[in-house]
């Protein structure tokens, strides 16, 4: 007959396996795309930084409306290790509009090209724009916002990731798409 201690040792690998699976789900999947200059960029290269990964397109009106908030976040927090990355879902028919759009909006952060709705789905962001994932310094997705960002929530999320834990923790998923 097994002793209670033996039972604990049998459960330990099961518990460790569950914890490992949960941790692995938090880590963002491999994700790389070319930037505006054509150089391949990889999300893994941003480990050690807090990343605000924002998916947008030139034809998306809410995307254009939230860009000033993202420009401000990049300006205010870059020296603290925060980087905003704009990921465009523009296709070949609207690709030529990206450079003028970025200049007009005075975007001060990296822009990656060629994302698809499949990329959104792999990151748990659905299929609609805009959509934003927040990654901690270890590359784990700590939050997702579907739809347009709200300034107060955006600032709170960045502050929380920087260790300024005031108020309630940000919700892991916020749906601002306008329908339930």
Radius of gyration: 19 Å
Instruction: Determine the structural class based on helices, strands and strand pairing.
Output: alpha/beta
Inertia-based shape: globular
User: How many strand segments?
Assistant: 8
Show unreliable segments.
6-25
Described by strand count, sense and barrel closure, the largest sheet is:
6 strands, mixed
| Estimated helix fraction | 25-40%
Relevant CATH superfamily: Glutaredoxin
Proportion of residues in β-strands? 15-25%
- How many helices? The count is 5
Query: How is the largest sheet built, in terms of strand order?
Result: 5-4-3-6-7-8
Separation, N- and C-terminal Cα atoms: 54 Å
Order of helices and strands, N to C? HEEEHEHEHEEHE
Labels describing this entry:
180 residues, alpha/beta, Glutaredoxin, six-stranded mixed β-sheet, 21% strand, globular
Structure description:
The protein is an alpha/beta fold and 180 residues long. The chain has a single domain (33-176), classed as Glutaredoxin. Helix content is 36%, strand content 21%. It contains five helices and eight strands; from the N terminus they run αβββαβαβαββαβ. The protein has helices at 4-26, 61-77, 98-104, 117-122, 151-161; strands at residues 32-34, 40-42, 50-56, 82-88, 111-112, 131-135, 141-147, 173-176. β4 (82-88), α3 (98-104) and β5 (111-112) form a beta-alpha-beta unit. The N and C termini lie far apart (54 Å). Mean pLDDT is 88; it is low at 6-25.
